[in-house]
């Protein structure tokens, strides 16, 4: 999949909303990528590296957009951060949902993409149950103060943000390169696909939602 061509197609589809294009946003150099990877202790998937070398992300626009556009929702690489160390309530809820097994609010692939942290979460749960018959749930402090959980390398990386009203975040799997949309107010963690799939989703929405995007573009 030609990422450069997909970026160009998305910008062309948004020719009626120039402020939502990313033509003027330069890519990230290899040195910066290596610095971020070293800081986080990870290696970014190759298609992600290719995509951000063409266009880096941008600061969050207003209160976020609805249209799943990579040109507007992708954050600058310097703003990327591990999901496992994000807002404690969201992370605890995420692993609580994961630990229940098959769940309608979870894409099936995310179990594998978060498997190391999930295993640590399940160990914490088991230990708490052994220590206390009264407790059946894990608190935020249980997670964040557990060394085995908190020192694991990042498995899911926050690389973008959608609508603030729904606390939407784009999560990149370091293991597989899959991108998920986390909608915490539902809650729901759905699969978008590869980075190229995300851009293609934006192309389709830019065409389908042209009238609404134009209106929001004018308002912003």
From TrEMBL:
Taxonomy of the source species: Eukaryota, Metazoa, Spiralia, Gnathifera, Rotifera
Signal peptide interval: none
Organism of provenance: Adineta steineri
Record Pfam families: SMI1_KNR4
Family matches, as InterPro entries: Knr4/Smi1-like_dom, Knr4/Smi1-like_sf
Domain Knr4/Smi1-like: 27-201
Protein name as it appears in the record: Knr4/Smi1-like domain-containing protein
């Amino acid at each position: 999949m030609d990422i450069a061509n997909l970026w160009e197609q998305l910008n062309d589809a948004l020719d009626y909303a120039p402020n939502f294009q990313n033509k003027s946003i330069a890519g990230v150099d290899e040195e910066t990528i290596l610095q971020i990877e070293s800081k986080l202790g990870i290696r970014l998937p190759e298609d992600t590296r290719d995509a951000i070398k063409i266009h880096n992300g941008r600061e969050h626009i207003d209160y976020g957009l609805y249209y799943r556009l990579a040109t507007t929702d992708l954050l600058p690489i310097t703003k990327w951060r591990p999901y496992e160390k994000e807002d404690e309530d969201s992370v605890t809820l995420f692993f609580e949902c994961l630990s229940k097994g098959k769940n309608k609010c979870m894409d099936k692939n995310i179990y594998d993409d978060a498997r190391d942290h999930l295993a640590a979460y399940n160990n914490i749960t088991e230990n708490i149950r052994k220590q206390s018959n009264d407790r059946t749930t894990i608190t935020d402090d249980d997670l964040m103060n557990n060394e085995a959980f908190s020192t694991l390398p990042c498995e899911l990386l926050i690389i973008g943000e959608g609508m603030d009203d729904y606390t939407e975040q784009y999560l990149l799997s370091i293991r597989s390169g899959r991108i998920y949309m986390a909608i915490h107010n539902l809650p729901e963690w759905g699969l978008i696909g590869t980075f190229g799939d995300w851009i293609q989703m934006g192309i389709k929405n830019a065409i389908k939602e042209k009238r609404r995007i134009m209106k929001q573009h004018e308002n912003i």
